[in-house]
Each structure stands twice: as C-alpha cells, then as structure tokens.
Amino acid sequence: MESNKISKTSALLVASLASFLTPFMGASVNVAIPAISSEFAANAIILSWIPTAYLLSSAMVAIPIGRIADIYGMKKIFIYGITIFTISSLGAAIAPSVYFLILSRVFQGIGSAMIFVTGLAIITAVFPPQEMGRAIGINITAVYMGLVLGPFLGGILTQYLGWRSIFFLMLPLSLLIIFITLWKLKGGEWAECHDEKFDLVGSLVYSLSLLLVLVGFSQISNDPFGKLMIIGGLIGFLLFTELRAEHPVLNIKLFTKNRTFAFSNLATLISFTGTYAVVFLLSLYLQYIKGFDPRTTGLVLSSSFVFMALVSPVAGHLADRYNPRKLASLGMMLITLGLFIFVFLDSTTSIYQIILGLTILGIGSGIFSSPNTTAIMSSVKPKYFGVASATVGTMRLIGQTLSMGMVLFIFSIYLGAVQINTDNYSLLLISVQITFVIATVLCFIAVFASLARGSI
After folding, report:
1. How many Cβ atoms from other residues are within 10 Å of residue 193's Cβ?
2. Is 94 in a helix, a strand, or coil?
3. Does the pTM of the predicted model rise above 0.70?
C-alpha cells in the first residue's frame, strides 16, 4: 500500500511539473510578441505564426503519439518528449531569424505533445476512479499555474532580460523534470497495448489531413489555396474513417458509440477555439492600444489564470462526487459571459472592466476543465487511456490552432501583412472586437454541446 502511495504521488508530481511547463511556454511567449516583432521587424501575419506553429505541430502528432505510448510505454515517450522540448527551447533562444524561431516552435510543439499526452495518461493509469477527479484537478491546476506565471514572468523577463530569456528558462526546468522522472518513476511503463501494431498509414493520413485543414483555415482568405487545402483535408479525414487497420491509431467507435466521450470532446474543441486567442489579442491590445509595458500586461493577463488555478482543484474534487455534466456546463456559461464583456473593448475601456472579464473567464474555465476531462477519461477502458488522453489534448490543440487561425483570417482581412503601428491601431481594434464576437457565439454553442453529453 505504501509503495502504491509513493507511485501515485511521484506520478502526479512529474505529470504536474510537465503540465506546468508547456502552458507556461505558450503564455509567456504571447506577451513577448511585440518585442519579437521589434527585433525581427516581422509583420502581423508572421507574428501570428509564432504561437500557431507550436499548436499546429502538437495537434498533428498528439493522437499518433498517444497510440505509440499505449504500445511502447508512457514513461519512455514522456522522457523523449521532454528531451525534444529542451533542445528546441535552446534553438528558439538562439534563433537568428523569425523563421528559425518558428521552426524551433514546431519542434517545441512536438515535444510538448509527447509530454502532455503521456502525463495525463499516466495519472489516469495510476489513480483509481474514485480519486481520478481530484488528481486531474491538481494536474489541471498545474496547467493554470503555468498560465498564471507565464504572462507575469514572461513580461518581467521580456522587459528586463529580453524575450530570449523565456526560452533559456525552459532549459533548467526541463532537465529537472527528466531527473525526477528517472529517479522516482522506476519500473513503470504503462503500456496496455504492447502486443499490438502501430497504424502508420492511418497516422500519416490523419496528420496530413489535420495539417491541410488547419493551415487551410488560416489561409482561407488567400483564394483559392486555403479552400482547396480545407477540401483536401476533409477528404483525407473521410479516407481515414474508412481505413480498416487491425489496431487503428484512433478507434472511431470511441466517438460513434460513446456519447459522453464524443460530446465532452466537442465541448473541449469549441471552448478552446473561443478562448485561446484571448491572451494573444489582449496582449496586443494592452501594449499597443493602452500603451502598457510587458510587465504590467503580464500582470493584468495573469488575473484570469489565478482564478483558474484556485477553482480547478475544487471543481475536480466535486466531479468525483457529482455529475460532471452540470459542473462543466455551468463553467461554459461563465466563459461565454466573460468573452461577451470583451466584445465592447475600445480605446477608452477601463482596466477594471478588462480584469472583470478575465476574472469571470478564469472562474468559468476552472469550473469547466476538470469535470470535463474527468468525464472523458472515465468513459473509456484502460487500454484506451493513451489515445483518450491524446484526444483530449488534440481537441484542445485543434481548438487553440483554430482560434489562432481565426485571428490570422481576421487580421489578413483588416490589417494585412503590415507591422502594427499608430496608423493602423483602429484596424487592430476592429479585428480584436470581431474576434471576440465570434468567440462569444462559439462558446454559447459549447454550452449545449456540454449539456448534450447526457448523464455520466
């Protein structure tokens, strides 16, 4: 019993540290975007690809990585992921151009996918069902702590040490996680499907289809390539569903035969599509329109994530005792309200209104995430933990990528490929307002997706 306790504690520690790392990276870089733009003289479209490349590469590989982890072992893939993340962080820190930085972000995204897919799956494999909600709540709290400290420390680091210091900070943190994993998680690999084969063809079709759809969405205004890529990607997904592999990379029956799994993932997808771009947009708004420095911007943006971190473990604990459907749906209602407040942003909006919107958004996200994730992971058999965990991550990443794709699309219409300056601040403000209108509508729809999962 004692060794089992140590195993659970160690697994939760390692997974939570890693869960802190990847969102911290994303949130801190968003605050540094104007500084990166200044150094490389990059236009608004190129700047949007700095977070998008990270998300896109993660989304492409998450499902295949989850399947590989189920076959070859969670811990092995976890360590490989941390290693790739560490090396690519160094590459980003010494990037000589914005294009090299974007390439480094691609590999960071791949390493990040390997980390978060296996981290959540390890927790699910180690903790019994009656403790799973609490463990997932703690893990999601670590995610939100990364989001809390990301804008705050990212702003301070950018202002006093330069944006490259954010990437240098990742090196000792990543090495610490590798050390703890090798020291504390000895013996366990959690490979439930070690006797099954990896579906390489299905993985390639899936990844390339997703790439075409997401890149096509971001380029949809550039006729005809954007539309053609989306059509090609959708055809690829149809082909993917018709493949008849003995051990498919993603068992489609998880969606068609499992209502809870399907609608919980749909709610995740829509919610992140609506909310992810908030930090990016407000970072630009606060620094360009309101004239805040990176440190103050990071402090303001952190207010949302503080409430996420405070509420998430409580929501996770409640999800062990009550129906996650009602909790998650309540959270999504609050997210919608928080986004609605930002629809009315203009140059005279008070900082108190912005903090109010961020606070409501943070509380809603905290209430939504833990119960929703618990519902997903509780609805599948142990042999699908890796793929289910990867599916959660993929829905999140696709949502985040679509969120940035939405920004790219709107920016390309109103701003174009120009550097942001005082001459086009009014166009930037219009772009921000339109994006928040669309985000609010999407999350309102997600309320009904959350309710549609039925009793759990």
Report:
1. 19
2. coil
3. yes
Question: If you compute the radius of gyration of the chain from its CA atoms, what whole number of angstroms results?
Answer: 21
- Helical packing angle, 294-321 and 2-40, nearest 10°: 150
Q: Rounded to whole angstroms, how far apart are CA atoms 8 and 169?
A: 28
Identify residue 360 by its one-letter amino acid code.
Answer: I
Query: 197: exposed, middle or buried (C-beta count within 10 Å: 0-12, 13-18, 19+)?
Result: exposed
Average pLDDT of the residues in 182-205: 71
222 and 87 inside one domain: no
Q: How many structural domains compose the chain? A: 2
Which one is predicted more confidently, 328 or 439?
A: 439
Distance CA 6, CA 26 (A): 31
Phi, psi of 194 (to 5 degrees): -65, -20
Structure token digits, residue 389: 């965990």
Choose one of 244, 277, 312: the last residue of a domain.
244
Instruction: Give how far Cα 152 sits from Cα of 16, 23, 143, 260, Å.
Output: 20, 13, 15, 36
User: Residue 411: its pLDDT value, please?
Assistant: 81
Give the model confidence (pLDDT) of 89-113 as tens digits: 999 999 999 999 999 999 999 998 8
> b/e for 72-93, b at 16 or more Cβ within 10 A?
bbbbbbbbbbbebbbebbebbb
Positive or negative torsion for Cα 9, 78, 145, 309: negative
With beta carbons less than 8 A apart as the criterion, state whether 185 and 75 touch.
yes
How many distinct helices (H) and strands (E) make up the chain? 16, 0
446 contact partners, CB below 8 Å, separation of at least 6: 266, 267, 270, 271, 274, 332, 335, 336
CA 101 to chain centre: 19
pLDDT digits over 26-67, tens only?
Answer: 778 888 888 898 898 887 778 878 888 888 888 888 888 888
Cα of 147 vs its chain's centroid, Å: 11
Are both 219 and 250 inside the same structural domain? Answer: no
Question: Both 130 and 170 in a single domain?
Answer: yes
Would you call 398 helix, strand, or coil by DSSP?
A: helix
- 456 in a structural domain: no
Within its chain, how far is the Cα of 115 from the centroid?
12
